[in-house]
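Researcher: I'm preparing a figure for a lab meeting and need a structural model of a single chain. I don't have an experimental structure, so a prediction will have to do for now. The sequence is pasted below. Please return the structure as tokens so I can convert it later.
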Amino acid sequence: MSRTEDQLQGITLLGNNSTVYPTDYDPSILETFENKNIENDYLVTLNCPEFTTLCPKTGQPDFARIVISYIPRLRMVESKSLKLYLFSFRNHGDFHEDCVNIIMKDLQKLMDPKYIEVTGIFTPRGGISIYPFANDGDEQHQELVKKRRCDMMNSFLSLSKSLI
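Model: Understood. Here is the structure written out token by token.
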């Protein structure tokens, strides 16, 4: 079930040996490919352990693991373009919560997934860890949206209770 050249038409970054790393936030870097399994509701999870951004006030670097999960519809995000897109946050100044929501909204606009969630697991700074979570879904997946929000709240509550 390999892909034809026509199906790979929009993929320009993968296999390109002269990669240019962006210096500013740039969602136009993102590329997609066709979901060949549209009859299935399946979950794609992307783990990005080396995310960096800047504090909008101090300019100091913030580090995080970004976890993106989605149920694709017709298009899927190509991983090298996602890597470069996330790299484009390196000089971008925004709060942790904003970064997670920006990533989710950019990917929604790009792919129109049935369901998407983005979690940021930011390294503590000033003795505080911040773990923003954003999710959304189409009409058929609204129960999943609510359930995942509850699951995330419960897991963070359990974590905080175990630390007391």
